[in-house]
Amino acid sequence: MSKRNFISGDTINNMIKATTPDVLEVSVDLITKSFDGSKELRDYQKKDLAKLISLKRGANFSEQRTGKTPTIIMLCESLKQKVVVIVPPTLVHLTWLPQIKEWAGQEAQILFKKKNDKFYPMNVNERKALYEQFFNDPSSRYLLVSKDTWKTDFRSIVTEDKLKDCILVVDEAHYLKGLRSRSTTTIQADQVYRTSLAADRTYLLTGTPIVNYPSDIYGILKVLEPEVFGSWSSFVDYFWGFDFFNATLKKYKFPKDEEIIISFLKPRRVIHKQSEVIDWLPPVQKDLVTLDMENSQENAYVTEVNKLNWSKVPKDSEILGLLQRLRPISNGIFKDDKYLSNKFKWIRNYLKDIESDEKILILSNFSNKTLSILHDELKTFKPLLITGSTPQMKRVEYINKIQNGKSKLLISNLKCIKEGVTLDKLDTLIFVDRSWTPADNEQAIMRFLPPTKNLKREKNKQIIDLISYTTRAPRTFFNIDFKSIDSYIVETLSTKSSLSKNLNNMKFVDDSLTFTEDDEIMKQVIEINKTIAKAKIVKEYMKKKTIKKKRAKSFDKSKLH
């Protein structure tokens, strides 16, 4: 049944007409040097500044570590607007403090209070008092407020009229994809969207405007041109014929549609790739260490595999569930109150042999099943541990400690350090296991590399991947096809289930999120440890299915980046 009635007016014509945004005549001197004059924006950042300052609503889609933060701070300094409200995710918003201090020479206001050298979140009354001071007689023009706090305070404490002269900066703006659903994320995204309507200017920062699916771009488009883009249903209807599932695939319905979105974004955004602007990255030695499992660990691994009936082709959901269970087993298992792990054994021996001044970062996706245990196993090395439950201020404290050389070993969940963190003073990065999404791994690696060419290092960087390996499993298990996933499987699963989302992430690990050219390690990880790094469907199973729909044109996400 057609749902074309969801489109309001000539949506597509409005989009085409709006491809050239209103360009403002800005008669101000652009400030390009830091407050003390010791640093200056690079040439490409100066061009970005000149373009963005001419837009009321703009976006910076440059990749990580290309200097989005200094550029936007210098834009705010050049405009000398009354106040600047910066709304990033909770876990990274305090990382803005040193940047604002360095480039603007101001101490940004934060919704924390300090007591006994520790920071604590302000209560409602304390936040009200800070907002009142900030919008009436600010001691600093910059306010940092996490999107979680802003979700609660905007309109209940801070009214729209206070933002009429404000510059709104949305960091990690890809969370605006939440405008399309009714989850908690939507409340956060919706409050930021309504703030953008009230603010004088709005700027969006993200290196990944599309996280998983092309429809993720809707929230960003809506903020950039709220009068052009209507509802989520209208957006999906035009591009996918109201087929929500296809909206979650990396495809557009017609070739022209992709070009429409790209032509719309081009005059409203600036974009740079790391490879184009960062020419000072140090040599990185990449090592892949393949380890035989401990006997008990291998037995547990094979036992888990044998729980499926391999005399017939298992269901796709059974294979996916199996691979999810195998991942933590490949790191280690408990037996007789003792944790047995080939990877932990290797790490202990490695730490005994390294130089005394070498600083190490160890990453895994599993906090409770891997990292907490590893932290206890390595107590003699006095490691710091960051997981999802680590308080924000404690994370900042730990990162500062290892950056300043007061600690030598940091163990962290991969997702906790992929955004808004700098760990460039560390020497070695060890992946106990990688994410199924290559973009997460690449973001983590970029946090480990130096942000400026002035940083002098005597040592090269090193990245180590630890891979468990076994040949003990049913032959059918090793015949799982890791490259021939048919669209039938994706189209028969509900997109609302976490199972389907995980399957999509793994399905596109090769062809949608391209590896950097020199990332041979990740390719080897996938090839050697197929059963752990990716989930695919048995080839024989796929041959039984018939594809009734023609494949749509693949969506080239790189054109948006």
From TrEMBL:
It comes from the Bacteria. Keywords: Hydrolase. This is Helicase ATP-binding domain-containing protein. Residues 49-227 form the Helicase ATP-binding domain. It comes from Spiroplasma clarkii. SMART domains: DEXDc. The keyword Cytoplasm does not apply. InterPro entries: Helicase_ATP-bd, Helicase_C-like, P-loop_NTPase, SNF2-like_sf, SNF2/RAD54-like_C, SNF2_N. One of its GO terms (molecular function) is ATP binding. SUPFAM superfamilies: P-loop containing nucleoside triphosphate hydrolases (SSF52540).
